[in-house]
Amino acid sequence: MTMKTCALIAALVLGGVGACKKSEAPAPAPAGPAVPGAPRKVAVEAGSNGYEPARIEAAPNEKLVLVFTRTIDGECMAQVKVAGGTAIDLPRDTPVEVPVTVPASGEIKFQCGMDMNTGVIVAKS
Fold this sequence. Notes:
1 helix, disordered N terminus
Protein backbone atom coordinates (compact mmCIF):
# COMPACT_ATOMS: atom_id res chain seq x y z
CA MET A 1 0.00 0.00 0.00
CA THR A 2 1.44 3.38 -0.96
CA MET A 3 1.55 6.32 1.43
CA LYS A 4 -0.94 8.16 -0.79
CA THR A 5 -3.42 5.27 -0.54
CA CYS A 6 -2.77 5.04 3.19
CA ALA A 7 -3.47 8.75 3.65
CA LEU A 8 -6.68 8.47 1.64
CA ILE A 9 -7.91 5.52 3.72
CA ALA A 10 -7.03 7.36 6.91
CA ALA A 11 -8.91 10.45 5.76
CA LEU A 12 -12.01 8.56 4.64
CA VAL A 13 -12.31 5.84 7.26
CA LEU A 14 -10.74 7.31 10.34
CA GLY A 15 -11.41 10.97 9.85
CA GLY A 16 -7.77 11.84 9.29
CA VAL A 17 -6.27 9.71 12.05
CA GLY A 18 -2.93 8.31 10.90
CA ALA A 19 -3.81 4.65 10.31
CA CYS A 20 -0.42 3.90 8.76
CA LYS A 21 1.75 5.28 11.51
CA LYS A 22 4.30 2.92 12.90
CA SER A 23 3.42 1.74 16.38
CA GLU A 24 5.32 3.56 19.06
CA ALA A 25 6.73 2.05 22.24
CA PRO A 26 4.73 2.94 25.32
CA ALA A 27 6.02 5.90 27.28
CA PRO A 28 8.05 4.97 30.36
CA ALA A 29 6.29 5.24 33.69
CA PRO A 30 6.88 8.58 35.37
CA ALA A 31 9.47 8.70 38.13
CA GLY A 32 8.29 9.36 41.63
CA PRO A 33 5.15 8.39 43.48
CA ALA A 34 2.09 7.41 41.45
CA VAL A 35 -0.09 9.00 44.12
CA PRO A 36 0.95 12.30 45.72
CA GLY A 37 2.41 11.60 49.15
CA ALA A 38 2.89 7.87 48.43
CA PRO A 39 6.39 6.40 48.70
CA ARG A 40 8.41 6.25 45.50
CA LYS A 41 8.91 2.72 44.18
CA VAL A 42 12.36 1.72 42.95
CA ALA A 43 12.79 -1.54 41.02
CA VAL A 44 15.93 -3.47 41.99
CA GLU A 45 17.00 -6.60 40.12
CA ALA A 46 18.82 -9.23 42.18
CA GLY A 47 20.60 -11.01 39.36
CA SER A 48 23.84 -12.42 38.04
CA ASN A 49 25.51 -8.98 38.20
CA GLY A 50 24.47 -8.37 41.81
CA TYR A 51 21.94 -5.64 42.49
CA GLU A 52 20.93 -3.32 39.66
CA PRO A 53 20.89 -0.50 40.47
CA ALA A 54 23.47 -0.98 43.20
CA ARG A 55 23.31 2.71 44.14
CA ILE A 56 20.04 4.54 44.70
CA GLU A 57 20.02 8.27 45.38
CA ALA A 58 17.07 9.80 47.21
CA ALA A 59 16.14 12.92 49.12
CA PRO A 60 16.89 12.96 52.85
CA ASN A 61 14.00 11.40 54.83
CA GLU A 62 12.28 10.30 51.61
CA LYS A 63 10.11 7.21 51.90
CA LEU A 64 10.89 4.55 49.30
CA VAL A 65 9.61 1.10 48.48
CA LEU A 66 12.39 -1.04 47.03
CA VAL A 67 10.86 -3.65 44.73
CA PHE A 68 13.36 -6.52 44.62
CA THR A 69 13.03 -9.15 41.88
CA ARG A 70 15.43 -12.08 41.92
CA THR A 71 16.19 -13.27 38.38
CA ILE A 72 18.69 -16.07 39.06
CA ASP A 73 18.75 -19.37 40.92
CA GLY A 74 20.98 -20.02 43.90
CA GLU A 75 21.14 -19.24 47.58
CA CYS A 76 23.15 -16.03 47.45
CA MET A 77 20.44 -13.74 46.07
CA ALA A 78 17.55 -15.69 47.61
CA GLN A 79 17.41 -13.21 50.51
CA VAL A 80 18.07 -9.54 51.10
CA LYS A 81 18.86 -7.67 54.31
CA VAL A 82 18.28 -3.92 54.48
CA ALA A 83 20.24 -1.88 57.02
CA GLY A 84 21.45 -5.07 58.70
CA GLY A 85 17.88 -6.10 59.51
CA THR A 86 16.15 -9.43 59.22
CA ALA A 87 16.69 -11.42 56.03
CA ILE A 88 13.75 -11.16 53.61
CA ASP A 89 13.09 -14.05 51.20
CA LEU A 90 13.18 -13.23 47.49
CA PRO A 91 11.35 -15.95 45.54
CA ARG A 92 12.58 -16.17 41.95
CA ASP A 93 10.80 -13.87 39.46
CA THR A 94 8.44 -12.54 42.15
CA PRO A 95 8.59 -8.83 43.08
CA VAL A 96 9.00 -8.27 46.83
CA GLU A 97 8.36 -4.80 48.25
CA VAL A 98 10.59 -3.53 51.06
CA PRO A 99 9.72 -0.13 52.58
CA VAL A 100 12.67 2.08 53.53
CA THR A 101 13.06 5.60 54.88
CA VAL A 102 16.19 7.36 53.66
CA PRO A 103 18.28 8.82 56.50
CA ALA A 104 18.63 12.58 56.91
CA SER A 105 22.27 12.14 55.83
CA GLY A 106 24.53 9.26 54.95
CA GLU A 107 23.42 5.95 53.54
CA ILE A 108 21.62 2.67 54.12
CA LYS A 109 23.17 -0.55 52.86
CA PHE A 110 21.41 -3.65 51.59
CA GLN A 111 23.02 -7.01 50.95
CA CYS A 112 22.27 -10.58 49.96
CA GLY A 113 21.72 -13.26 52.56
CA MET A 114 25.36 -14.39 52.24
CA ASP A 115 26.76 -10.82 52.46
CA MET A 116 28.49 -11.20 49.07
CA ASN A 117 26.49 -8.68 47.00
CA THR A 118 25.71 -5.22 48.30
CA GLY A 119 23.89 -2.06 47.37
CA VAL A 120 23.38 1.34 48.94
CA ILE A 121 20.71 4.01 49.30
CA VAL A 122 22.32 7.44 49.58
CA ALA A 123 20.73 10.59 51.00
CA LYS A 124 21.34 13.20 48.31
CA SER A 125 20.31 16.79 48.90
